[in-house]
């Protein structure tokens, strides 16, 4: 048994599962011939993999009305060819001996022992699912409980492995001795191998799997094999191929199919915006390309008889999307160029500063209208919940970035940074800090950047308070570093800042100091105006100290 087939001591009885595959869709008959030969009035795409008509582009538009019985040009989604029904939401492919050997080597057919798997699945639905409500919880559990080593697995194996992986990123199982990041890494290898060997053919399952992969960060801030930005990009591109960005409209789709597509699309939008907001990279989703109706509360209500919805989870998700609409507009204003933008500038349309002011006003209005469950606690005896805490951290991070160029906003910047740190302290006291989403780690980084900036202020009182806030936040960042390479690198750097030892080995002349004179010149590292070697003039509040984003914050010309 190699290391990928077990999670180490504590994973006493890992289970081998069996999956019965189907044929290879891509090699069965003529897809286009079968597609045009179907009766478009019959059947429901809810039981079949869906095809987005634009995949066939002009061919279908030209030939569909002539050769396709019941073809409707205003409909964009039909059953796929060669019409292979899903089995329990999956279309697994029959593997050859070599492919099967690879998956066995990486433990892809192994599920952790029941106690461990149950714990990670519960952690996923408790701590991750409210941020990614793309799976039917009751249906998943019902099918999972029917799974045993003596029968073929009834859940899509890829989704089962992805759920267990995602749950491992927010909770440390007490029975496992391996470090949490090593446990997650082994689970990721199992799941990713299924993708690389083309085991799963259902594209909706692949979209959801890559979305769940985004909750796992590799051992590098910017790994080229696995990081949040790459996983989300893959999920979104697959969703485009399915036509998930288009309204199902008159397509013959079951209600539950429509509901899942709609929720999945807006989940992709939410995470795409927040990932770009934190990483400073272009978004994959442009809402001008989409006509999917916005989510409403009833879309997130459970459909099973007797099932109760969690109002807090619903409010968190819907209000997060509303916040992302504002952030997305602000990100649009940062686009560096293009003919349309240059023409708009010449025509006297609102410039970047004006758009930012509008976004600030919308942000303030959004915060004023927060639901009671998402508002900050009324007293010191009360606490943030995990969901209200994460949502408020997003708001304060938006405040930090929106106002970063306003010379009169020092008070707002200070208050926003302090609020983020206080929320993290509150969640840490409740032992919830390890369960915050990855964006929360970046937001704490951002707040500590502001503390570091204030610690270099000319006013000694401001500098002392900034240094104190920085030191208060360091233990939290250190704790988060066990699961995040971003937090680990940030902790190392900001600890040096707090101690006055910033990058001493990089200085041309050694810096001699002691505690009372730690604010001496730091040569190439100018914390007061956040200018870095090779990044002169860059506005540091648009990024973490150690992650240089690509936002263009220069003045419009």
TrEMBL record:
Keywords: DNA-binding, Nucleus, Transcription, Transcription regulation, Zinc. GO terms for biological process: DNA-templated transcription. InterPro entries: Amide_Lactam_Regulators, XnlR_reg_dom. The lineage of its organism: Eukaryota, Fungi, Dikarya, Ascomycota, Pezizomycotina. Residues 228-299 form the Xylanolytic transcriptional activator regulatory domain. GO terms for molecular function: DNA binding; zinc ion binding. This is Xylanolytic transcriptional activator regulatory domain-containing protein. The keyword Ribosomal protein does not apply.
């Amino acid at each position: 048994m190699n290391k990928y087939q077990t999670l180490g001591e504590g994973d006493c009885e890992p289970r081998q599962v069996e999956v019965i595959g189907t044929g290879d869709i891509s090699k069965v008959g003529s897809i286009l011939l079968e597609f045009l030969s179907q009766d478009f009035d019959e059947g429901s795409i809810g039981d079949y993999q869906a095809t987005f008509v634009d995949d066939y582009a002009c061919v279908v538009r030209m030939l569909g009305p002539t050769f396709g019985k019941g073809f409707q040009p205003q409909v964009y989604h039909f059953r796929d060819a060669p019409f292979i029904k899903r089995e329990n939401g999956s279309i697994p492919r029959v593997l050859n001996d070599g492919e099967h050997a690879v998956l066995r080597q990486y433990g892809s057919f192994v599920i952790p022992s029941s106690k461990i798997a149950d714990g990670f699945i519960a952690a996923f639905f408790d701590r991750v699912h409210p941020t990614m409500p793309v799976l039917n919880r009751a249906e998943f559990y019902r099918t999972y409980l029917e799974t045993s080593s003596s029968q073929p697995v009834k859940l899509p194996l890829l989704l089962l492995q992805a759920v267990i992986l995602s749950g491992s990123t927010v909770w440390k199982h007490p029975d496992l001795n391996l470090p949490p990041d090593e446990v997650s890494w082994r689970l990721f290898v199992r799941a990713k191998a299924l993708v690389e060997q083309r085991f799963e053919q259902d594209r909706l399952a692949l979209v959801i799997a890559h979305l769940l992969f985004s909750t796992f960060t590799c051992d590098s801030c910017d790994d080229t094999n696995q990081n949040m930005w790459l996983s989300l990009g893959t999920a979104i591109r697959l969703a485009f191929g399915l036509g998930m960005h288009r309204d199902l409209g008159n397509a013959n789709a079951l209600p539950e199919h429509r509901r899942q597509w709609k929720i999945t699309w807006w989940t992709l939008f939410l995470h795409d915006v927040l990932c770009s907001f934190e990483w400073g990279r272009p978004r994959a989703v442009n809402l001008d390309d989409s006509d999917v109706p916005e989510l409403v509360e009833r879309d997130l209500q459970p459909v099973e008889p007797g099932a109760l919805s969690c109002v807090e989870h619903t409010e968190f998700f819907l209000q997060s999307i509303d916040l992302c609409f504002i952030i997305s507009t602000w990100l649009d204003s940062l686009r560096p160029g293009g003919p349309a933008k240059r023409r708009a500038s010449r025509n006297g349309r609102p410039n970047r500063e004006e758009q930012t002011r509008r976004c600030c006003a919308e942000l303030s209005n959004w915060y004023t209208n927060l639901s009671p469950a998402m508002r900050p606690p009324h007293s010191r005896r009360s606490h943030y919940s995990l969901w209200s805490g994460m949502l408020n951290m997003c708001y304060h991070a938006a405040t930090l970035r929106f106002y970063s160029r306003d010379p009169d906003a020092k008070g707002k910047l200070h208050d926003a940074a302090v609020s983020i740190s206080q929320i993290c302290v509150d969640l840490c006291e409740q032992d919830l800090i390890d369960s915050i989403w990855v964006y929360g780690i970046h937001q704490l980084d951002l707040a500590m950047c502001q503390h570091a900036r204030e610690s270099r202020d000319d006013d000694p009182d401001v500098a002392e308070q900034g240094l104190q806030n920085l030191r208060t936040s360091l233990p939290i960042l250190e704790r988060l570093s066990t699961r995040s390479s971003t937090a680990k690198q940030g902790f190392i750097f900001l600890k040096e800042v707090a101690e006055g030892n910033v990058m001493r080995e990089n200085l041309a002349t050694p810096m001699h100091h002691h505690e009372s004179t730690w604010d001496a010149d730091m040569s190439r590292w100018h914390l007061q105006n956040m200018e870095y070697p090779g990044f002169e003039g860059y506005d540091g509040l648009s990024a973490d100290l150690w992650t240089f984003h690509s936002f263009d914050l220069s003045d419009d010309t």
